[in-house]
Amino acid sequence: MSVRYVIKEGFAGIARTKLAAFTSMFSLFVAVFLIGILFRVGYNAYELAQSLRQQVEVEVFLHELDGQSREEIREVLSGSALVDQVTYLSQEDAAQIFQEEFGFGGESLADLSFLPASFKVTIATDADLDEVEQFVGELREFNGVDEVKFNLALIRMLESRVQTSAMIGGGLGLLILFVSVILVFNTIRLTIYAKRDLIRAMKLVGATNGFIRRPFLVEGVVQGLIAGGSAALLLFGLFTWGLPRYLPQFSEFAWPYGEWYYLIGGVVLLAVVMGWWGSQWASRKFIRDATVYG
């Protein structure tokens, strides 16, 4: 079969059902455009949550210890796979921080030397919270450890918010894509119906279902390319010039994985796949048996 024939018939199918084709392309355009926005906003929300999680620390306050006992505790902390970084704060360091934070009047209080030495422990971003909680419980039982402070509730809240946002965004994206595929499906079905006499004649002279199906697949791919390309251009313009001009905060938004072309390319590819899927689904269903066109 000629490639030229397949491409020509694919474009001709769009021309035969202009309104239905426009509806499905517009639906695909809106779907992938919204998904592109959701993905970029969701990506930055995830990065922000990870950044905030890195700032959450475990504070291990110590009794008065000799150097060897202190180093033993440091080795235990540093040796844990859950720990990313360990910083020791002496009583003098704690007094200086106290004075800086409380300002006027803090100096006289700091001279009392009532502030204990401590270790500030930064938890690894990929650490499991249940394991961290267990680890903190074990730290509280160490000889020489006076108190352990760990804001577990804050981390759990961050993870819960990120997971909830991801579920809502993912569910909304899937719903939008499903509706778009249905519209592509209906467009291809109308095109097949418009060509029912030709398809019946082709079957009578021995044309296979695969031979008849290919132009409809091209039609779906073309719809996806047009919709995805339009959405990609609008997304790039919106995030590069539109939003930063009126909302400067958006200029701080990072492109997924650091480059714009990952998101833009993904949007076009997603639209093409959705267009192909809808046309594949419709053409397999309605070309399988010529009697459906009777």
Order of helices and strands: HHEHEHHEHEHHHH
Spatial order of the strands forming the largest sheet: 2-3-1-4
Q: Tell me what portion of residues adopts beta-strand conformation.
A: 5-15%
Main sheet record: 4 strands, antiparallel
Overall spatial form: elongated
Low-confidence stretches: 290-294
The beta-strand count equals 4
Helix content: over 70%
Q: Termini, distance in Å?
A: 26 Å
Output the number of helix runs: 10
- Assembly type of the chains comes to single chain
Question: Which structural class do the helices and strands define?
Answer: alpha+beta
- Indicate the mean pLDDT: 80
Radius of gyration: 31 Å
Structure explained in plain terms:
- With 294 residues, the protein is α+β, with helices and mostly antiparallel strands.
- The chain has helices spanning 3-16, 18-55, 67-78, 91-102, 106-110, 129-140, 152-194, 196-204, 209-246, 260-287, and strands spanning 57-62, 83-89, 118-123, 145-150.
- It has a 4-stranded antiparallel beta sheet.
- The longest helix is centred in the middle third of the chain and has 43 residues, at 152-194.
- The protein is elongated.
- Residues 290-294 have low confidence and may be disordered.
Can I get a quick summary?
The protein is α+β, with helices and mostly antiparallel strands and 294 residues long.
Could you outline the blueprint of secondary structure elements for this entry?
Layout: H1 3-16, H2 18-55, E1 57-62, H3 67-78, E2 83-89, H4 91-102, H5 106-110, E3 118-123, H6 129-140, E4 145-150, H7 152-194, H8 196-204, H9 209-246, H10 260-287
Antiparallel strand pairs: 1-3, 1-4, 2-3
